[in-house]
Amino acid sequence: MARIDYFNDPNAPKANSIVPSVTAVARNEAGDVLLIHKTDNDLWALPGGGVDVGESAPAAAVRETKEETGFDVEVTGLVGIYTNPSHVMAYDDGEVRQQFSICFTARIVGGELRTSSESKEVAFVAPSKLNELNIHPSMRMRINHGLASRPEPYLG
Fold first, then answer.
1. Residue from 64, 112, 121, 132 carrying the catalytic annotation
2. Confidence label for 2 from pLDDT (cuts 50, 70 and 90)
3. Structural domain boundaries enclosing 54
4. Residue 148 burial by Cβ neighbours in a 10 Å radius (0-12, 13-18, 19+)
């Protein structure tokens, strides 16, 4: 399903739903960040997605990372909670979702790189190369916070 992201846009449609979601900042031994090239909005992003009923947020981050990248991860910490009501995602079925994302750090413990229906490309990207990719500002903030080793999680 296609979507359009609106970020601090006064012409954005009003949200009609909110769905808890997760993302994971996982790095390889070289320090490169695991990213996916998303099929729904053609942007690069951290692996992640919605939390299912009966599932914890950390378990959702593990599941979503596996589904979208092929890698098994273990959640190791909290990067932050991202709930900007001025960031909405409009889907082609009429849903307009307000951002609600919990971002974790994670360690790769197994698996192998593969794509999925949600990720047309999966790659480890050196932090110095991140500016070469088309990444949504909200996702870029999560990546930057995940790489910064902040003493406290981001709450916003």
1. 121
2. confident
3. 3-142
4. exposed
